[in-house]
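Lecture 7 notes: from sequence to structure.
We start with the chain below.
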Amino acid sequence: MRGHLRLVSWRAGLASVVLLTGGGLFGADDLSGPHVIEEAGVSVQVVGGDGMDWSDVGSMLKDQLTLSGNTQPSEPLADDLAFFTRQLYIREGWPEAEVAWEIKGGVILLTIRSAQQVRVGEITWRGDILVPEDELRRFLLRASLERDGADKNNPVWVQREIEAGVGLVQRRYRAEGYLQAEVLLQPAAEPHENGLRDITVEIKAGPHFTFGTVAFTGAPPELEHLMQEQIAQTPGVPFNEARMQQIEGKLTSMAKERGWLLATTSSSYTLGQAGGTVDVQLTMEAGERVLIARLSPHENFSRGSTRVLRAGFKKAVGKYYSAEDLDVMFKRALDTGMFARLDVEPQLQAGISPPVAELRMTGEETKPQTLGFELGYDTFLGAQAGVNYRNTNFRDTGNTLAAELNYSLAGPLGSVALTDPAIFNSGFSSTLRLALENFSLFEYSRYGSSLNLQLTRQVTKAFSYSLFAGFSVNTVSTDVLTDAELGPSNYALGTIGGSVMLDFRDSPVLPRKGWFLSGRLESTAGGDVTYMRTDLRGAFYVPITKKFRFAAGGGLLSIQGSPVEDLPIDSRVFNGGPNTVRSFAERELGPMTTGGTPLGGTAAVFGSAEFSYEIYPNLEIALFGDVGSLSGANNGTPFDYSSDFRTAIGAGLRYKLPFGPIRIDYGHNMNQRPGEGSGMLHVTVGFAF
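Predicted structure tokens for the same chain:
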């Protein structure tokens, strides 16, 4: 009866199921029986089968009864249930399992004789052992070892999984250029009394093939140098067809990503009987380079999202197709939050020479209006709670209206912001933000209102810059601090400036490799205070192994043109905290009042180095060292700083989330001074640098 499976004609979707194990719902006890399943009028009783969890058998039988659609017991149904039960036992390491069936009194009775569970015993490798045996074992037992709860030393014996592993071992040899490699599986005839079955694997490697001369013709002149570099390291590399296809695919992709959308690459070569070098002739048919003629957003997109797409991608029109340039535009569109899904594909226009394409844009918009609530904790601001509202397509214009109200131990903060992701249908985005704040954390309180405008341009994937201007009105009050400690108590502050960013990290929130460098220049423009501020920051990240990473970073913040006592206290630079020198609390490296108020300064420099290791998926342990200083001098250049350095060493944990890691760090104060603590614990979100 195994020649046909009536599953093809069965239907799904029956109603109630009762699964009993001696009077209760089926659970994870051994299947010693009897157990009963009743489904849509069909009763099945199972006995025997020691060693298997009843939950696994019961779930499988339930699924089969549901799929069958039978409402009466029948011999074909009973035979199929017995067959699937036996297959389940074989898959779990009982190759000699038998399942008998009969129908008694309208009930299907399955009797399982599971025999002994077989596991993999000793593995002996013979022949041409050209790959480390530990690696060969991992290939041979890959499927068995990937099972949930698998015994790493003696996994269950499943014949088809081991045979699949033999194929992986053979592919491993052929990847190394042994194209005629043969791998023979020779299992012991019977398992030992303890259920372990030994394996002997014999490997015949055969002749070895490597790449010889690789000739390449047909590349577009603009890409000739890049493509020659791509294949320059090929001679001497083990030859195999998969690697040959990878080279063809890589060359074709290089051409298509730069506008030769019709490019194809083929190869020809001859294999000798005795191995040796293989000379290859690569030929590219590039065709003509494709121009982007027009944009075509889908008609179902709203007016606002259509405007954003046309403005964001209009620089592509009239230029050759470039995947790199389109990636920047694509990311910019996604960053607006307007799209749950966005697909941008070039569509060649038939019968036109030279060839042109239109960019067809399809996808799905997000729900524009969202209301969110936030709860959190930070070692500087303490417990926090907030509510925020966001409309990513305000009045169907493509603009984003965002409002938030946040309260922490430092006081309330409320703001309203309007962002145009394509101001005047250009490549710039603009944000106008109005904020009201009450900051009362130390021995003073500041009430401030501010209006800020920022223009941002993402030029390339790695390079962006922004221009900004702002004006704020502030009132600072205290019953403790002196005028010199506090700075101006009632002041208006106007600022203008700009920033640049070079970012070659693989991820801005969870970086593992790459580097970034940023600079920011801010100058006062009107108001009651005069100064110029420069901020320089940078970091680089180096993966040492898959789980082991090194990172280093630092910054130099400097104010010129005004002594520290003439600066508002919250406009000064500070040091210490989770992102600078971690042996100090936020802002607390440097001069403080006897009541614990950080007074800040005019120049802060800091640097950090960190080793981290992933001890569990998404969970890292880190060791770090920090150094930094704070100066209150009247600086003449952006590079003036104090040489009175403070140091920290420490350890921490990071748990990675999509928006960045939750980070817990403890930094120990290496040169503790009177009145300072021995260290500081920080809990925050995001990497230190």
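Points to note: The chain has a mean pLDDT of 91. The two ends are 66 Å apart (CA to CA).
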